[in-house]
Each structure stands twice: as C-alpha cells, then as structure tokens.
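Researcher: We're teaching a course module on how sequence relates to structure. For the next exercise, students receive a sequence and then see the predicted structure as tokens, so they can try to spot secondary structure elements on their own. Here is the exercise chain.
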Amino acid sequence: MQALTSKLTLTHSEELKRGITIRLGYADVTFYRCKSCSEPECYTTSEKCPKCFGDCDIVRTVSFIDAPGHETLMATVLTGASLMDGALLIIAANEKCPQPQTREHLTALEVVGIKNVIIIQNKIDLISREKVLENYQEIKKFIKGTILENSPIIPVSAQQRVNIDAVIEAIEKCIPTPQRDETKDLKMLVARSFDINRPGTEPKKLMGGVLGGAIIQGKLKIGDEIEVRPGVRTGSKYKPLFTRVNGLQKAGKNLEEAGPGGLLGVLTSLDPSLMKSDSLVGNVVGYPGELPQSRETLTLEIKILERLVGLSELKSIAPITVSEDLMINVSTARSIGTVCSIKKNRIELKLKIPICIEEKERIVISRLVSGRWRLIGFGSVV
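Model: And here is the predicted structure for the students to work with:
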C-alpha cells in the first residue's frame, strides 16, 4: 500500500511495533497516465511522468482497504471484503505457496463473491530468478480450477518499487469501476468510527464524531438528517442513533455531496464518545425510516465448505449442532449467534448483537476451532 499510495496504513502502535496489519487500513490514490510513454510505463501516481517528465492525465481515484494477512484476523478481512470491487492478493515469493492464510483468503474471496482479483508476487528482490519462477509455478498450480485461475500474476518488489506501474495497469484493466445506482435509498456501510478531538479541547470547540465507510447506493449531502442502525446499546436493547451530516470528505477533499464508490468520512453531530475505538463499526447509515429493521434472530439458508481452511492440514468440517455459537459476518457487521434450530440446510440463530440486514444478503459463517474463528461456510437470509 505504501508503494502504491505513499501512505503507511499501519497506524496503531501494535501494528507499527509488530510490522503487521491488525485493523483495517485505508488509503486513497489518484492514478495518472502519461501522454507519451507506452504501457505499462505510462501509469503513475504523480502529475508528471517519472520517465519522460511530461504531463499526465488523471485516470481515476481509487480507495484501498488494507486487510490483515494473518490467519487469526480473518474476521477483519471479511469485514473489509464487503466494501471491495476487486482485490490484490499478496503472495510472498520467498515463501512456499500456498501458506494456510493464503488458502483461507482465496476461500474468503470466493465466499464473498469478489471475482476481479490481481495476484501480486511480492519480495522478488529477496530471492534468485530461478526461485521466483519456481514460486510462480506454485501459484499457478494453487489457483488452477478456482475463480483466480485467469487472474494476472505480477512479480513485484514493493520496497524497491519494481513493477508498481504494471500493478496500476492491471488495476485499470481488471478492476473496472462498477455501475452504481444513485437513485435508490441511501445505504452506507460503516467500517470505522472515531473521535477527532484532541485531549484538552474546550467543550465549545468540540466536534462531533466521524463515521468512515462506503456508500453502496444513493447520495448523501451536508445538512442531511441520517439514521445509524442498529445504533448503541441502551440497557438490554440497541437504540438507533439520529444525527445531522456536518461534513463530508473523500480522498482528502471536502465535499458538499457524495455518491457511491470510494471511502467516505462523514462528520456528524453525534457525541464523539460514542464513536471512539471503532465502536460503531458494522452499523448501516440511511435516511430516517428507510433502513431495514435490526434483527436479533436470523434464519439462514447455508452451504458448508468441504474442507476447513486456514490450517496447515486440510480437515473435514463437522456438522453444525444446536446450541453451538457461530460468528457471522455480513457487510461490515459482525456478531455471534447461537444455533436455535436446524432443518436440513437451514439454521436459526439468536444474535448477541443485532444486525441491520435485508433478505437475501450474503452472510459468512465461522466456527471456533482450537481457540480461533475459522471460515466454514456462507449463507443468505430467508
């Protein structure tokens, strides 16, 4: 991400200390194309071409979500996947392919339905040419027969910025901007929430909390009244929040109005203490009265995977049982559900945290295996 966007998406102290992504990271970048150079050298992230120093034309602005690669953080990956139009699957050239987490990420891409994928064979500067080619053949064998079988594989050294222009070219050709409907009711998925006030700020200068995420459909403008559902816990129930939009920011620019596509920051008039530490992640934003009801119970039509992924050895998946706790991910929301009943390929769950969800939406199902949540299947709401 830093090679593509010039931004280090590791922002939390533990991420910087350990050198890994723990929470979802975000970065925006504008792609340019040189008028004189040939592909892929013509693609860059600067207004002036680094090859011929000529002027470049803007192609489009792209928002990236940096999801964790570590196997123990798959729930965070699945949260981020709901916002994506495509994906870059990063595979280290100096490691044998596939690693358990790579296999799990492939399954996650298949389950959430992301088909526009570019495979990045990173760290080619650390090994010989022969080892790079050997690793390339391992990758080809790994993706054969999957949704990634025809995905491009680009050898890259992110540290040395080798082939970054080829990555941009592949993004432009393989991950087009999808058509989105701005005439439908507003629906925004919340992936971050935070307080932007510095410690010691005077009460009269305090600003409301910020919601970060992506608009899936509809439009949002400054001054709009919005509803955040399921909201916050009050006693034993969750209560939706109502607020006003005080500001909009996308790709570092302040906007009067925002539509679908890209990552968006929404400045609200909500108490900033409600937004700290991503406490509203998984909520859905819409106009008052237009959002689906929050559900505390769900009936799902499910499909269980053939094998348990994410382990060094592939194991079969035992049937789901009554009273078992399962983790579900839908859009950016995450909850734990207890199985109340099972009828063939249908299960009923009682949720610990309600979810704002419509019928037929896809849900990803994970089970606790050896102390870690493992992806075991998917389903849809009936």
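Model: If you want an answer key for the exercise: The longest helix spans residues 129-143. The chain has three domains: 2-174, 187-286, 294-381.
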